[in-house]
Design goal:
CATH class of the largest domain: Alpha Beta
Number of helices: 9
CATH topology of the largest domain: Rossmann fold
Shape: globular
Number of strands: 14
Strand content: 15-25%
CATH architecture of the largest domain: 3-Layer(aba) Sandwich
Radius of gyration: 19 Å
Order of helices and strands: EHEHEHEHEHEHEHEEEEEEEHH
Largest sheet: 8 strands, mixed
Structural class: alpha/beta
Strand order of the largest sheet: 8-9-10-7-11-12-13-14
Distance between the termini: 34 Å
């Protein structure tokens, strides 16, 4: 079996969690890490047993022993790193949100398709066993035709203008950090909406504090979504069909349990535990796609990533949020 060798770009909080799940991914291994701080990269490598630490993002692109990069930098840095990696022929798993802007996402996706190099957004939710069970039930007709999706995800964070979450230059705000989950979940089940209506409020930095979105599909199908960095939300999702509904219990973006409700029947509770901390499933998907020579995932295709980024961009524009890409690779 071909071993797939991974490099980590951006050794932050999410990367600390993701890299530990390589322990349960067969045939994949994290071998290198890159940071704008060599000391930080070395500390991460020491903690996780990685062989090499690079003191710049550009440096890891020329590492011949890295097959695929997991990009976990702030949102606004994804675009520049991804473009440089594609030009270097490195496959990519890019954290969500995929980029800070719709135009940035389109540029990365266009280059991926031109080069044929594998790229996938790291939307781990789509690969959770409980979410796979939701899709399977819907495909079997368990709740009839899906007509509506409700989802919310929010946390209470004290405002700090220098924190990544609140800094527009780093892609701060609720939409890109948490809203991407509710939008991607709705897009997975309903497809791309015809119209986006958004309302919310901003922090003093100009980043969005909270948002409520109505996604209109033009045929009566809708999604009603909420996200917030100002206050905690349950983190639940509900999928309504013509003959029943499915509750995805908190927190829906990495759930263990779903409940199927059908007219005239008792509710059915289904539990599906993830491997490791839950990140293993997206790592397995990328690893298997690379072995098979695929240029993108069928579960998290690039068209879906662009559709989600478009909704986020339209919502941000309506709220008066102005995101931008960071052109420096570092």
């Amino acid at each position: 079996m071909q071993e797939i060798r991974w490099g980590v770009v951006g050794p932050g909080r999410i990367a600390e969690k993701v890299v530990e799940d390589f322990a349960v991914v067969e045939g994949a291994r994290a071998v290198a890490v890159a940071s704008r701080s060599l000391d930080r990269a070395r500390a991460f490598a020491d903690r996780h047993g990685l062989e090499r630490a690079h003191g710049s993002y550009a440096e890891i692109l020329t590492d011949p022993d890295v097959d695929v990069l997991y990009v976990a930098t702030p949102h606004s840095q994804h675009h520049a790193v991804a473009l440089a990696a594609l030009r270097a022929g490195k496959a990519l798993l890019v954290e969500k949100s995929f980029t800070a802007t719709t135009a940035g996402a389109a540029e990365v996706i266009d280059l991926a398709r031109q080069t044929g190099v594998f790229v996938m957004e790291a939307m781990w939710t789509r690969f959770q066993p409980a979410v796979v069970a939701v899709r399977d039930l819907i495909a079997e007709g368990a709740i009839g035709e899906v007509r509506s999706v409700q989802a919310d995800l929010g946390v209470a964070r004290d405002y700090d203008p220098v924190d990544r979450l609140f800094d527009l230059a780093l892609g701060g705000g609720a939409l890109l950090d948490l809203g991407v989950y509710v939008v991607s979940f709705a897009q997975m089940l309903l497809g791309t909406p015809e119209r986006v209506v958004a309302a919310g409020s901003l922090f003093p930095s100009g980043a969005d504090a909270d948002a409520a979105l109505l996604l209109d599909h033009g045929d009566g199908r809708t999604a009603t979504l909420m996200t917030s960095l100002r206050n905690a939300l349950p983190g639940q999702a509900r999928v309504f069909g013509t003959t029943g509904w499915i509750d995805v219990l908190p927190r829906f973006h990495h759930p263990d349990t779903i409940v199927l409700h059908r007219a005239g029947a008792e509710p059915v509770t289904i539990t599906r535990k993830p491997l490791g901390a839950g990140y293993a499933h997206e790592l397995i998907e990328v690893t298997e796609c690379l072995r098979a020579g695929r240029s993108e995932s069928a579960v998290m295709p690039l068209a879906d990533t662009l559709a989600v980024q478009t909704v986020l961009g339209e919502a941000a524009e309506q709220l008066g949020v102005r995101h931008a890409e960071d052109a420096a690779i570092g």
